[in-house]
Amino acid sequence: MLICWPRRQVTLSVEKPVFNSIVPLVESLAHTRIRDCYQCGKCTAGCPMGASMAIPPSQVIRLLQLDRAEAALRAQSIWQCVSCQTCATRCPKSVDCAGVMDALRQISEERGLATAEQRRVVLFQKAFLRNIRRNGRLNEVELIAEFKISTFLFGRSLPFLFKDATLAPELMKRKKFHLVGEKTRDRAVVARIFARCVDDSLL
Amino acid sequence: MNLAYYPGCALHGSSNDYEQSLRVCLDALGVELKEIDDWICCGATAAHSLNQKLSVALPARNLALAERDGFKEMLAPCPMCSMQLLKARKALAEDAALRRGISEAVELEVRGETEVLNLIQVFEAIGLDRLKAAVKVPVESLHAACYYGCLLTRPASVVKFDDSEQPRSMEKILAALGGKTVDWNFRTECCGAGMTMASDQTVLDLSHKILSNAAAHGANCLVVACPMCHVNLDMKQPDIERHYDVQHKMPIYYLSDVVGLALGFNPEDLGVDRHFVRKA
Fold this sequence. Notes:
heterodimer; B: Glutathione S-transferase Yfyf (Class Pi), Chain A, domain 2; 4-stranded parallel beta sheet
């Protein structure tokens, strides 16, 4: 007699991926090998943001190993990562977990999966690079203004737009506020370096 | 000692108090700093997050400028800059094809041979004995929590400085200056670093933990060697106190502030009076 086991669906690696695998792309961006991770959890244990992450670093890596690209790209934790490098430094298998987080943020943003609030990190980084491309050196006032405007255009959050405004007089009092920032003399070479490295559409 | 000096954007921006104090100290200790002519930004987190090639090219241009002007050693007091410079230097040293490609991209030949030093290493090179001999006012009242943060010791394979879990180099300098240091748990934890603008809450949470742990272990100040750590722990401290309804009142000194005070300079000479949190 055949005993019929209650049927239960187990979803592990058998889940049909909605996205094509992003593992090769992540590996090439982060110069690391996802398959090397043996899930010891040391990255998660040392992560300063780990306690508040729904999907901590070791599980993000596991999702990639299981080819669950969308779940990894939509994880809030990739935006909580502060790039402190603790995970990468402690990994016994030399997986550059912080680099993987960088790569996932980049891909998530490019594919339009990031929310307005999540995108702030990337919008800040893009405003930062545009600033360098123009000036050669960072102009803090210009950067903050540009970042605030670009986040406002995406998120429409008025409180966020004005949140740091009170800081300006405090910085001015301490001679830490430079309305006119420094610039390098040879800004043309900076622009050429950018043109050789970065696709215009990125920034 | 004659060093190329790469200030980086922070030290010429809102962290100009850091530049003020390190210049005063190093000048008094006979270290001559030559600012790298027409240096450019290292690209920081933004470049290494968004574009690999750019994150090598920007620091490489600065390495090439230092090499062109014949410098063997360069001081980069901001750990973000020094990590970026060291990372580029390592990549260039290991890969001849990359060296050629990047030299072309930055329009200068770059070999990646210039040594990149952080501020702690410069004090070590001066020598703890010499430092000790130069002390005029031992900083006896300090019970300092030396805070290393992330990038002074990480990634260890890139920066190759001190121990990434239990660094001690700042404690040794403090001891030479006659100060006391405390043992505590958050010496290499992250303050939130580059999230200052994008995610304020992260900075408040992480920096609050750091300040609380230092106080719990009997520290009466923190000593840092990073402009970003200083911004998050000092400038943001009033916000942290408001958010958590606590009183930290923890002065945050740059390492060069403490060296300068021990050498007999006034807080005003060093820019300590321009910090947000003042000594009680």
